[in-house]
Amino acid sequence: MKVSPSVMIIFGGTGNLTNSRLIPALYHLESANLLPKNFKVIGVARKEFTDKSYCDELLISLKKYSRSGVDEEVWKRFSEKVTYLRANFDDKDSLSDLSAILDNLEKEWSICFNRIFYLAVAPSFFPVVFDSLKRNKLNEGCAKDANPARIIIEKPFGRDLKTAKNLTTKLAGIFKEEQIYRIDHYLGKETVQNILTFRFGNEIFEPILNNKFVDHIQITMAEDVGVEGRGEFYEEAGVLRDVVQNHLLQVLALITMVEPEAFDAKSIRKEKYEALKAIRFIEPNEVDKFTVRGQYGPAKSKKGYREEDEVHKDSNTETFVALKTSIDNSTWKGVPIYLKAGKRLEKKVTSMTIQFKETGHRLFEKFSNKPEANLLTFQLQPDEGVAVRLVAKKPGFEKELQNVDMEFCYNSAFREPLPEAYERLLIDVMNGDQTLFPHIDEVEESWRFVDKILEGWSKQSKPQFPNYDSGSWGPKEADELIEADGHSWLAHQLSVCQIHFRN
Ligand SMILES: NC(=O)c1ccc[n+]([C@@H]2O[C@H](COP(=O)([O-])OP(=O)(O)OC[C@H]3O[C@@H](n4cnc5c(N)ncnc54)[C@H](OP(=O)(O)O)[C@@H]3O)[C@@H](O)[C@H]2O)c1
Questions:
Q1: Which residue in the list 185, 247, 361, 500 is annotated as catalytic?
Q2: Is the pLDDT at 501 greater than 50, yes or no?
Q3: Runs of H (alpha helix) within 172-285
Q4: Looking at ligand 1, which atom is closest to the CA of residue 90?
Q5: Of the candidates 414, 434, 493, 342, which has an alpha carbon nearest to the alpha carbon of residue 190?
Q6: Is 361 a known active-site residue?
Q7: Residue 77: pLDDT above 90?
Q8: Cα dihedral 48→50→55→57 (10° resolution)
Q9: What percent of the chain has pLDDT over 70?
């Protein structure tokens, strides 16, 4: 694959995101020879570093976070492409040196390269960074209009519809939509990208993905960890903003959208937006009925949320949510959709399961048990794969049925190790492909959905937190929400691709 010459300027070059995700992703791209010949990373932050001491720090983290260790040769090659620029965003002139650095590189390489600005800083810094970029004409790129600069913004984009719109207003006049890459790393996962391929590349699935055949859909994102030192961020976010607004609604849009006209950014983002618009809002006066929120308490020698660093001891921030909604269009009308996400749950699993209807089977009247519903599961974590649950006759003389799973697992089907989501997404930015980056219309529509719930919660009486133990599956009301419809949370029971065939 040919990747365009690029310089990635990481604002927040000393932070957690840079150390744990971005540098490991870029290192692996170097290792796979995917970085372009003309490539540089410029880390920008306040701490005092030389290029050499900055790289020494990055190497320490890389050893911790790399998915395949660190090869000395590759690191040497990669570290030669890394430099550091000390700057304080509180200082108005902090980025004035950057223009000169980029212009000099342009002369040295004699080419027009992509100028990519990655905002790995707290959202409170976004406005001042935008202003600085504009003041120094850094938004224009190397040759105005021919190759304008690109900006990468981490999710969540805003903290509600109003702040998302404010952010858009701030960006207006500085960066156009085609220059903005709103990153949601879940969309870089192979299984997520494969949802569309499975649906539209295999004739057997699409005809049955509708309300005639589908009983309901469940999407679960369960984490076994707590806030992991990010208490301050989490206090402001909560699980609804942190993962439902982006990861879960995006996955829901991919499984319910209609077939796009083409496999390109414009067509896919358009249909995802239409799908998001069709999701039924949970009105503020319905949150009692259709949502359950929770917060983990201490258990099994694990801290409760309120004992975490930088968390208020009376915090009412939710670390768990379960909700029920549906899709208001002719394809999906009447199919319940259950979403669930939480921290410090029993195990780490992110999956989406489509349960098909049971239509009654006369043939098996004399059997000791009846066929159970077929399931189609896309699992994103811990192992990426897709499974179809079928019914088979149990071997032997008895008339007995048994569920069997047909699985497609990435780690056994393909010999190459899976690229991390960030690796894929960073390459896409360098190549100017926005397919896996949500459009502002999608982001705003997702906030409309979430804002209604937040409004409803704000009118409820104070929640009785904590209301679930660390290491459990969340509050019992979440089970009751789905059991009231005769279902149960399938992610508790299903484990896709747990057998590792080869690596
Ligand atoms: N960490 C993750 O896994 C993760 C995941 C998804 C999204 N995000 C998002 O990514 C962003 C960064 O998160 P993070 O966890 O990496 O935060 P972090 O560890 O607190 O890093 C913040 C960075 O900002 C720099 N900084 C702070 N004040 C500055 C100033 N006045 N001038 C210049 N630089 C300044 C810090 O460097 P100095 O102290 O050296 O200046 C540091 O490099 C946030 O928006 C977060 O929501 C993070």
A1: 247
A2: no
A3: 190-201, 231-239, 249-256, 265-277
A4: 31
A5: 414
A6: no
A7: yes
A8: -30
A9: 98
